[in-house]
Amino acid sequence: MAEDLNQQEPTAEEKAKFEQDVLKAAEEAMKMEAEANKADEAQAEATAEQPAESAEQPAEPAAAPDPTEVLKQQLADANDRNLRLMAEFDNYRRRTAKEQLELIETANGKLLEKLSEVQDNFERAFASENKAQDLEAFEKGMQMIYNQFAKILTDAGLEQIDPTGAEFDPNMHEALMQQPSETVPEGHVVTVFQKGYKLKNKILKTAKVIVSSGK
Hints:
alpha+beta; 4 helices; 6 strands
């Protein structure tokens, strides 16, 4: 029995080797623990820095607008501009028409003012106290009034059309009839029954004429 117990006790070399193994295992355990602690610290630092990095990241670009909505908005803007332009044009047209009417009324007023002077002269000529016993003097007075009247019309741009002897022009003349003529060529005006009038190259009234049919 004593021999068996002695055989089970480790030798000094075995104890030394065992102690070395224990120290080595302890060192490896401490090393692994240190590495684990270092990994935990690194993860903690990464977790702590993550919000800051996220804050520094650029914001994601906004979503692209819907092309249909963009076209709808452009169409609405164009319609609004067109409505504004139409309203402005309508106001301009009304204003222009009003100004033209005022110009016409002003021009007519000046013309009528001058014609009223002719009327006054006629009334004075026909007044009983101004009636002349001399027909020649009366005729001279009428001629003066006529000249005044004709000058007013001429100054206003009115021009007489007297096509006596001229070639017949259907744009300016109205043929009442044809008659033979020894002196006036065929197709020319023999007699002016009523003179025509034009205002600055615009025909107001055609001349009524008799046209030659030749010999």
